[in-house]
Amino acid sequence: MVDKVRELALKILYKMDKDNSYSNILLNESFNKIRKEGNKNNLNNRDFAFVSEILYGVTTWKLTLDEIIKKYSKIKLNKLSLWILNILRLSIYQIVFLDKIPKSAAVNEGVNLAKKYGNKGSIGFTNAVLRKVTKKDYEEFFFIKDENKRLSFCYSMPLWIIEELKEEGFSYNKIENFCKASILRPKVSIRVNRLKTSKEELKAILEKEGFKSEEGILEDFLILDKVNNIENLEPFKNGLFTVQDEVAGLSALVLEPKEQEILLDACSSPGGKTTYLAEMMKNKGEIFAFDVYEHRTKLVEENSKRLGINIIKTKVNDASCYNEDYKNKFDKILLDVPCLGIGVLKRKPDIKWQKKKEDIEEISKLQFEILDICSKYLKPGGEIVYSTCSVFKKENRDIIEKFLGKNSNFKLDNLYNILNGKIYNKNKFFIQYIDKENNGYLEVLQNEKTDGFFICKLKNIKEN
After folding, report:
1. What total number of domains does the chain contain?
2. How buried is 75 (Cβ within 10 angstroms: 0-12 exposed, 13-18 middle, 19+ buried)?
């Protein structure tokens, strides 16, 4: 008899590969569908957690799992059916990485799934491969002499990402730390909505809900551990907090918004940074929130309403296309531009398999266009924060240096001075990552505390 929990995980993995979809989206859709249909299989919270574990684990470790399959399979991976390939992946993930699951259980349940989703030949094939697999198969990767290949297999990191980081001047030690961080399970970071509550009040409310919290790096943030379905919590529904990584909040903080200013968030959806700007402005002033699709601006509107914010005006607008109506309109502009997202792999491991090296050229071209065009919307003396959740210099420093070379009326602001007491004086964590030679660049490879990101601030020094 097929285990319904593993079967659900298999169906989601199959759909991910078939439709090239993201795991978190499919997971939420599947769970919501089950609940709406009355949960016929009587899955409990523990079952949902196990499905999430398998899905996140297989997605994170796919390259490594496939290398183990290759070791024991005489059939090439692209010749296997997606059902059998994902049965092998989820079973091997349990054998190698989940200590609490007996190997016999992982093998037997994998074979049962093969009986339902394969044929007679694939049943025997699945059984033969899984019985050969041990934890030692993974441990052997650490002895590979080729450094790039070792890092790739040990941390399930596409080779092109490692090669790109090496080409950009990162040491193998830094690259390995980056790879290690990409397989860590991220804790949940939340931002206190001070328009509705205080940090102390929110901590007390969460404690009553059964959640322990710890102080974040930044003043408005708390860190939670082991939280499922956070959006179903009443404090969330009531707008007392927003789920947001601290580095995402940092880019809004660096902009230093003031009450009554007119701001632009040119790439705003889903609205985490936009709403933080509004909260810092005490909901006084005006914020224009652009995005290219209406359904994405709707997300900004929904978040604003939940948080009790009414100064945000959404507009469907392509930030890479110039609009004369906005020339010299804004005091400050936030450009958290589209990027490859290589700094958030521990939160979105799908990115590793969705993005390719050739995407760098296309995305960097778009990033420069957005910066170049939106800079024309800034008032003389105004400021722009440019940020990404990527770690490649081609998406970050190279863009800024190209822009400054073409725009003599802009200069980099000193981030050390901004962070050292002006907006943030509790912790020196981020200051250590500011470029010592040029205080205008803040660059972090993802680590055990934060995602990877890039932030800089540009000031228009042209006078009225």
Report:
1. 4
2. middle
> CATH number of the domain that 449 lies in?
3.40.50.150
What residues are annotated to the active site?
389
Same domain as 80, residue 132: yes
Cα 185 to Cα 235, 346, 429, distances in angstroms: 24, 6, 20
Dihedral sign from CA coordinates of 252, 254, 257, 263: negative
Expressed as residue numbers, the domain containing 232 is: 188-243
Are 399 and 263 in a shared domain? yes
Average pLDDT over residues 58-66: 97
pLDDT of residue 227: 75
- Is residue 436 domain-shared with residue 341, that is, in the same domain? yes
**Does one domain contain both 399 and 309?**
yes
- Burial of residue 422 (number of CB atoms within 10 Å: 0-12, 13-18, 19+): exposed
Alpha carbons 251 and 218: distance in angstroms, whole number: 12
233: CATH: 3.30.70.1170
- Averaged pLDDT score across all residues of the chain: 93
Q: Determine the Cα–Cα distance for residues 427 and 162; give it in Å rounded to an integer.
A: 31
Q: Which residue did the predictor score with more confidence, 285 or 421?
A: 285
Task: State percent of the chain over pLDDT 70.
Answer: 98
Q: Same domain for 279 and 389?
A: yes
Structure tokens at 443: 């660059």
Residue of 447, 439, 429, 438 lying closest to 391 (CA atoms): 447
Q: Specify the pLDDT at position 155.
A: 98
The C-alpha R_g of the chain, in whole angstroms, comes to 24
Same structural domain for residues 348 and 199? no
Lowest mean pLDDT among 15-29, 61-75, 106-120, 318-332: 15-29
pLDDT of residue 90: 98
Structure tokens at 436: 């010592």
What CATH number corresponds to the domain at position 12? 1.10.940.10
String of b and e for 269-308 (b: at least 16 CB within 10 Å)? Answer: bbbbbbbbbbbbbebebbbbbbbeeeebbbbbeebbebbb
